[in-house]
Amino acid sequence: MPFHGTFDHSLDAKHRLTVPSKQRAAFSEGAFLVEGADRCLSLYPSSTYSALVDAALAGLNPLSSQARELNRFFRSNAHAVELDSAGRVMLGSKLAASVGIDRDVAVIGAGDCLELWDPSTWADYHRDLSARGADLTSSLGHPS
Predict the structure, then answer these.
(1) Residue 101 vs residues 29, 57, 122, 129: alpha-carbon distances, Å
(2) C-alpha angle 125/44/137, rounded to 5°?
(3) 71 lies in some domain
(4) Tally of domains in the chain
(5) Quick count: other Cβ atoms within 10 Å of Cβ 78?
(6) Which of 41, 65, 78, 107 reaches 20 to 30 Å from 31, CA-CA?
(7) Partners of 105 in the β-ladder
(8) 62-106 pLDDT, tens per residue?
(9) Mean pLDDT for the chain?
(10) Is position 141 within any domain?
(11) Residue 133: what pLDDT?
């Protein structure tokens, strides 16, 4: 199920995020909350994240320093989580703070995952992304 759209949410007092109801089924078998290269958290269905990591590491010599470092990066920044019966996922204060999320959260559909951004960080990034939209599409050989 590809994730689309942008939603404004708030964390509760226990740093839990209520996942949009129409997207909860994708996380029925667990999820990974991932700190990645961007200033956001990504919420992946467990099987999707595992497949992405396996594909990224495929073909690398598992004893090479690059493979070991990539393996550490992907796996140490991924936290196994589950949605509770109310469809909430625990972010935790330390993980939320690592990407600047306090209480309000912009939930972004990003295809294979949901991204969780501090709303002002997302607004700045989205403004820049939108300004570069024509260049991005032209780099793919598509007309803008």
Answers:
(1) 26, 30, 11, 20
(2) 40
(3) yes
(4) 1
(5) 20
(6) 65
(7) 9
(8) 999 999 999 999 999 999 999 999 999 999 888 999 999 999 999
(9) 92
(10) no
(11) 83
